[in-house]
Specification:
The protein is α/β, with parallel strands linked by helices. 53% of the residues lie in helices and 13% in strands. It folds into 2 domains: 5-16 and 95-203, HAD superfamily/HAD-like (Rossmann fold, 3-Layer(aba) Sandwich), CATH 3.40.50; 18-93. It has helices at residues 18-27, 33-46, 51-62, 69-93, 100-108, 121-130, 147-158, 172-181, 194-203; strands spanning 5-8, 112-120, 139-143, 165-169, 184-187. Helix 6 links the parallel strand 2 (112-120) and strand 3. Helix 2 packs across helix 3.
């Protein structure tokens, strides 16, 4: 069955923002060795989680196991606001991934395109609008939506089977969400880029799946 719907990740897939998001965490905390090590450890373990999960884990380790969930939650919200200010500007101004706009324009005339990201949905929509990409997507989903739940919702709304949906992303969470929803996955990496996606869809006549 041919692919009819393509669900894109955003950061590292359509825009070159992964390093911006990574570096922003270090701007929120003191630059001493203790904080630096904690941040490096948490980001190595939770790099594909939402900023809220990452910040909560950082604070728990800095506060040496502080169990006051309300206190931690308030700190997380405050830090998340500051983090959002840092990455929002960067995401609006960073480079597209190679060929992103051209690929989206070409594919949007043939497929139903969606965005599915861990970036907060309000910020995600603002970034997409600022880059002039709204016209390419049927809908845009960000945090707090779960990636797997979003894919399943898209399939229901589109009345499509898993074989008709392809997930495109650069992270393990994208691959895992595609696997959980039993749909195809195309990985964006140093080896495969968005232009290769075009070739894949053309050569496979939109009928193959990539795992």
């Amino acid at each position: 069955m041919a692919v009819k719907v393509i669900v894109f990740d955003f950061d590292g897939t359509l825009i070159d923002s992964n390093q911006i998001k990574y570096d922003a965490f270090f701007e929120l905390f003191p630059s001493d060795n203790l904080h630096k090590q904690i941040l490096e450890d948490v980001l190595s373990e939770f790099v594909e989680e939402s900023r809220y999960v990452i910040l909560k884990e950082i604070l728990k380790r800095i506060d040496d196991g502080d169990k006051n969930e309300g206190k931690i939650a308030r700190k997380v919200e405050k830090l998340a606001d500051s983090y959002n200010d840092l990455v929002l500007t960067g995401a609006k101004n960073c480079n597209d991934m190679p060929g992103a706009k051209t690929v989206l324009k070409a594919l949007s005339s043939k497929y139903r395109l969606y965005l599915n990201s861990t970036t907060p949905e309000v910020s995600l929509k603002e970034i997409v609008r600022d880059r002039g990409w709204n016209e390419f997507f049927c809908d845009i989903f960000g945090h707090p939506n779960d990636k797997v739940s979003t894919i399943l919702e898209i399939m229901r709304n589109e009345s499509k089977s898993s074989y008709e949906l392809l997930v495109v992303g650069d992270g393990e969470s994208d691959k895992a969400s595609a696997r959980a929803a039993e749909c195809g996955f195309f990985e964006i990496s140093r080896v495969c880029n968005l232009k290769d996606l075009m070739d894949f869809l053309k050569d496979a006549k939109s009928g193959s799946r990539v795992d």
